[in-house]
Design a protein that fits this description.
Structural class: alpha/beta
Strand content: 5-15%
Order of helices and strands: HHHHEHEEEEEEHH
Oligomer: single chain
Shape: globular
């Protein structure tokens, strides 16, 4: 028996280095969170999730949570602020005004205009999106479809929009810099991504862009922020998978990312938002473009995780060239 026991010990000692090598890897794999989960420190709630519980609601009902729906429509411009009861949070009635508001939203996003919170409307409303309102100061769509296109393009329908009063820059060379907010991505990657995003607009417009070190002197100021960051309560960021970013029309120049999002660089899965895609969209706002209701356009308000949308569509190009003639 002695020789057999010795052979077993010899075999065990032979595999010991392999066991010692694999053990730390096994421990690490058990302690590492799945890649699709929000990064540490991120908010795990989804700000628009409450809308799913309201699916099927229609005029004449009183349902808990409808006051939040009214706040959603207020935030994105469909309901004037003086008409919503946002202080007491007790207005849960689906009245005529809310029905009209839902219809306006459905019309803008090419949904069936039912006035009810049907499945398609709820699905659209719960997607992550830009924080810039679709409607400003009660302004509805201008109805300018096809009006600005030349004779060779009359078969094309335009969906681009401008901000009220059509604000625009009075110069063609714009400088930009980076604010010292929350660091969500390393500065060199951010600089490279933003340079690429600006270049996409430069190729189709009158503009040239230059990064400068003194952000206070820059025309355009870019940074990452959380929650209420000084832009007013209605422009507060809301955490993971809500509003992704916002930017101000000329000559405002401020462009802010929500630091609580999972930002990625050309992500290959649905665990991150592509930083450059959102940057291209927000730069359009900086230059004076409002949201487009063309789903292929960069200036379309809604976005999603794992998507990459950086190439300007015909509608984006027509919009910026129309605004600056």
């Amino acid at each position: 028996m002695a020789p057999k026991q010795s052979s077993h010990l010899t075999l065990a000692w032979a595999f010991l280095p392999l066991i010692l090598f694999l053990f730390p890897l096994l421990i690490e794999s058990r302690s590492t969170p799945p890649s699709h989960l929000p990064k540490e420190g991120k908010h795990h709630h989804q700000p628009f999730e409450f809308i799913k519980k309201l699916e099927g609601c229609h005029k004449g009902e009183t349902v808990k949570g409808l006051h939040q729906l009214k706040q959603y429509f207020e935030k994105f411009g469909y309901l004037p602020r003086h008409l919503t009861n946002t202080t007491t949070n007790d207005d849960d009635s689906f009245d005529d005004l809310l029905e009209s508001t839902v219809k306006s939203y459905q019309l803008n996003y090419h949904l069936n205009v039912t006035g009810e919170l049907d499945a398609a409307t709820v699905k659209q409303m719960t997607r992550p999106r830009c924080g810039v309102p679709d409607v400003v100061n009660g302004r509805t769509r201008s109805g300018k479809d096809g009006r600005h296109l030349n004779s060779a393009q009359l078969h094309v329908v335009s969906h681009y929009e401008f901000f009220p009063g059509e604000p625009r820059w009075r110069k063609s060379h714009l400088t930009y810099g980076f604010l010292s907010g929350v660091q969500s991505i390393d500065i060199q990657s951010l600089r490279s991504i933003c340079a690429s995003a600006f270049a996409r607009w430069q190729r189709v417009s009158i503009f040239t862009f230059e990064e400068i070190g003194d952000v206070n002197s820059a025309d355009l100021k870019i940074g990452f922020f959380r929650g209420n960051h000084g832009d007013g309560a209605h422009n507060s960021f809301d955490g993971f998978q809500g509003t992704l970013a916002h930017a101000f029309s000329p000559p405002g120049g401020h462009f802010h990312f929500d630091a609580d999002e999972n930002w990625g660089i050309n992500p290959s899965s649905n665990d991150a938002v592509d930083l450059e895609s959102v940057a291209v969209h927000e730069i359009g706002h900086l230059l004076g473009l409002d949201h487009s209701f063309d789903t292929s356009a960069v200036m379309y308000a809604y976005f999603g995780y794992g998507l990459r949308k950086v190439n300007l569509a015909a509608d984006d190009i027509a919009g910026i060239q129309d605004l600056y003639n």
